[in-house]
Amino acid sequence: MPYPAGQTPDVQPSPLTQNFDFTPISPPPDAADLLLLDTAAAWWAQGHPREGVLILDDRSGAITLPILHSLISEAGKPGSACARAEDAVSAVRVLADELGAERALQGNARRANLPAPVPAELPELTEQAPDAFTGVHTVLMHLPRSLETLTDWAWLIREHAAADVVVLAVGRDKHMNHSMNQVLEKHFEDVSAGRGRSKSRVLTARAPRDGVPSSAPRKNTHKVSIPGKGTTELTLCSLGATYGGTKLDPGTRLMLEAVEAHPEFPGAEYVLDFGSGNGTVSAFLTLRHPQLHVVATDHSASAVQSTQLTAEANGVADRVETVRDDALSRFESGSAEVILLNPPFHQGNAVDPGAAHRLIRAAGRVLAPGGRIYSVWNSHLKHRSVLSKEVGLTEQLARDARFTVTVSTKR
């Protein structure tokens, strides 16, 4: 190690943040992005290898593009990590769970007149070495909201990265907690917190531990009882970044009960599970309706894999098709007869009904005339007016203390 355990380089504003034009980047970098870049620069200035950089969940390219620009600018110079500009692109690896982050990186790279690394696919959590993680020397990431996500990332790094890997994980002070340190300490011998700056801080993890088993995919079995129609046993699987993990979301349970009681359901050969998450809806409906096919779509790579794993665990994989997509962009207008939707109520760490409104508009576009959208939402968010405007006549099917289930019919 270039530094003894528990010690890290002094972090100051660096050429990565001072010499790069962030104007084309949208959204622009925040204080955490800039601190992460300056921290990486401090390590590289002290001789840590600059090649083999992995960037996880860069939301806009604000982390990736300054590093790429620096490597390209220095290519071929004495002491450079890259002999040619082309080598710089392969020296930086990127992997994002959300499809929107991949697209933002590609778009911002074009505006900045830079090549963009091809995003890696989310690997399975097995001992088989994935290209994105194999032999990397530096990992840069935002601390995820989910400890399960952090656990999965940490295991993949510990299992496949170079022995001298330095993991730099930045977070906003208000969103950080000691459990994050504990997750990293399970996988790395040396974990330390850097000095805070602009209400942000970097956790540094080094020295991968031996013999830490993978905890994924996670599994949990539930029983779903439908009044008058029996009980269905359902096994749910998840990878770390899948919202809700292996839990049976109570709102989704209420929607499934209402859907099964609705006399017009399914009324189609296939249904669209929009925002499939851990695959609850897809697996349940195909178990209950042996002739039904489900197309399950989500913007999260972890959710798509989780839906596939759940379908396999319940023996219905031949009738569940998974598609990674953002807001149904790959689906033709008027192409779906039935859509089920449990829209998100947050964007990142903030409650944001706008995210749900965007998905409702997308569902309304894809729904065929006379088709139906079954949706569930936290009652206080009052999505009914949006459903009525974007889709058509909206009726309430069920309501409890927290959730409302509606069916909307396309005009």
Automatic annotation (TrEMBL):
The keyword Secreted is annotated on this UniProt entry: no
Keyword entries, A-Z: Cytoplasm, Methyltransferase, rRNA processing, Transferase
Biased composition range(s): Polar residues: 9-21
Residue segments, region Disordered: 1-24, 195-227
GO molecular function, one term: nucleic acid binding
Pfam families: MTS, RLMG_N
EC number: 2.1.1.172
Stretches assigned to the RlmG N-terminal domain: 30-207
Zinc among keywords: no
Domain Methyltransferase small: 233-406
Alphabetical list of PANTHER family matching this protein: RIBOSOMAL RNA SMALL SUBUNIT METHYLTRANSFERASE C
Protein's recorded name: 16S rRNA (Guanine1207-N2)-methyltransferase
Organism: Nesterenkonia sandarakina
